[in-house]
Amino acid sequence: MADGTRSTSALGRAVVADGLRTVDPVGARSAEHETNWRHGYLGHFRRLVEAGLLSREAAVTVARDGLASLHARMRVVPDDGPETALDEVFTAPAAPALHTATVTGTGAAERELSLPYRGQRLRGDDLRRRLDAWVTAGVVEPSCAEAVRAVLANPEWLDLRDQRVVVLGAGAEMGPLPSVLRWGGDVVAVDLPRPEIWRRLLRTAHRYAGRLHLPVRPGTADDDQALAAGAGADLLHRLPQAAEWLLGLDGRLVLGNYVYADGATNVRVAMAVDALTRHLQQQRADVALAFLATPTDVFAVPADAVRHAEHGYAARGVARRSLRVLSGGRLLHRNYPPGADPGINDSLVPQQGPNYALAKRLQRWRATVARDAGTMVSFKVAPPTRTRSVLRNRALAAAYAGAHRFGIEVFEPATSNTLMAALLVHDLRTGGGPAHAHPWQDEAYAAAHGGLWRVPYAPRSALGLAVLLGLGAARG
């Protein structure tokens, strides 16, 4: 900015415009002239998806141009030197090299997929019935249930000792770390040097059968207290150090991105991970990528999801019809135009803000570009989940509490992370799942959106009511 400060709004506006410029120049100009980015970003992020629907090439162009803009605009500001371009960060001398500590669990490896759900652990036919119920209710896409059934039918797939599953954001509630260790696999854990995180991860590692590989400072002893104090890799401030450590690991790397931070820091850490991803891909030919997408974003969805939503809209009761009329059409309007193929599901939540939207969108762009280049990519839409970060946001927590009134199922973290880990296994054993003609179909495959794609109402038109109902339930 003119006064020398750095504006995340200016960054987001410019990046969205750059992503649109080749495919949708009118949309690019509209983004550039948006005067209230904090509240006006929603339509521009939707337009990025709509512009990409023109063709496969259009979608890849939007993704490639958006990433190029981010890499050109983001800068590295070290503590003891001048700022540099993001792509030059790996040419700087790394901090002292990290060593690897390995902790082997004492449990027995599980070779049957099971899913924690509402106080039970579902296996076999019980799990199959739950998948059927979710499909019938519109909570997951049919392809999601099919993928999980394939894992159930091939229990040997759960043995991931032939992979090195790198969990960036190892302490994240949505990550696959507990499941991979439960199945006896190898997890490479990357998270901040905070002892409380590593104490929890070490307890998990001891309980299960797998091996946990930790980055530690040189000279760290091998007892749990010393490991918790000496473990960690800071992707924001010591990215070259983390990259050097990962490059030195043996075995095929599956680079899983599960990082999260609040506010503008989320964009910074997401870009650090993207720079790391590109660097590792340039240095190693065996890197696969894994991403979890938020369901509170804009996605193109199959015609079958549109028909499901239309059926529900036609069957809505008198009270909800009246509420729509009384609100002047602002509340409970239909999720899609009739017959849309594909439909556009716009589940962006204003309370999450443009920084969150940009951080999640750049991950989608990286998945699209990498898949187009032939990289094995696991990209899955995860369900709405009661994570700590969600529950800290009072309005969002209330909306989740009232969401079931509109056919949306909000998952507990243990259910979500196990389901997503099973879908990761499916992708690793099937080369990333089936090939599709267009990137939107890759994103929609095996989505577990919690019902947001198949409910009768556009999610934001029901959000306020869900908040009120959720607050009422909490007070009751």
TrEMBL record:
<protein>
    <submittedName>
        <fullName>Uncharacterized protein</fullName>
    </submittedName>
</protein>
